[in-house]
Amino acid sequence: MNIKKEQTTHIILLVTGIFILIGGPLIVKMAQLDTFLIGGVSGFGGAWTVNSAIKLYQIRKKPEEYEKQVIEQYDERNIAIRGYAGYATFITTLLTISVMSVIFMVLDYTRPLLIGGILLLIHIVSFLVYFRYYSKKL
Q1: What band does 123 get if pLDDT is binned at 50, 70 and 90?
Q2: How far apart are CA 40 and CA 35, in angstroms?
Q3: Which residues contact 127 (CB under 8 A, 6 or more apart)?
Q4: Once rounded to an integer, what is the mean pLDDT over residues 65-86?
Q5: How many angstroms separate the CA atoms of 22 and 39, rounded?
Q6: CA–CA separation, 16 vs 37, rounded Å?
Q7: Contact in structure between 11 and 36 (CB atoms under 8 Å)
Q8: How far apart are alpha carbons 47 and 27 in whole angstroms?
Q9: DSSP structure string for 90-112
Q10: How far apart are alpha carbons 59 and 32 in whole angstroms?
Q11: HSE of 83 in the Cβ direction (CA atoms, 13 Å)?
């Protein structure tokens, strides 16, 4: 792991986040788009800025601890934990979309039901595609 490369990456992300945080709402306002987008763009830029600032602080103040943290991230145990958590999240999302589709069906809302059904289909197909891809890769 190269800490200098990580630091450079986070500096670029920090500058980009600040640009999005300040410039994004201005562009949305000048283009006279929906004001709802201003909150989304600001949130996206702010999250990027804060995340990069925290990582830069960690790299600068405690580089050994940061390096240890990155190494542990790719530890076999943590990889397995992330796999189980990802699968649990997949099942939770699948159930949520299914319940939403049933609710829309009961309420006789056709468009949201179709959107939910298509989303459910995309979710299942993407799981099967990724499962097959990683089965061949590993």
Answers
A1: confident
A2: 9
A3: 90
A4: 80
A5: 12
A6: 18
A7: no
A8: 19
A9: HHHHHHHHHHHHHHHHHTT-HHH
A10: 40
A11: 10
**pTM over the 0.70 mark:** no
One-letter amino acid of 17:
G
Which one is predicted more confidently, 96 or 29? 96
> If we measure between CA atoms, which residue out of 138, 13, 28 comes closest to residue 80?
138
DSSP assignment of 32-72 equals T--THHHHHHHHHHHHHHHHHHHHHHHHHH-HHHHHHHHHH
What DSSP character marks residue 138? Answer: -
Render pLDDT for 22-59 as a digit per residue (tens, 0 to 9): 887 787 778 777 667 777 778 888 888 999 999 899 88
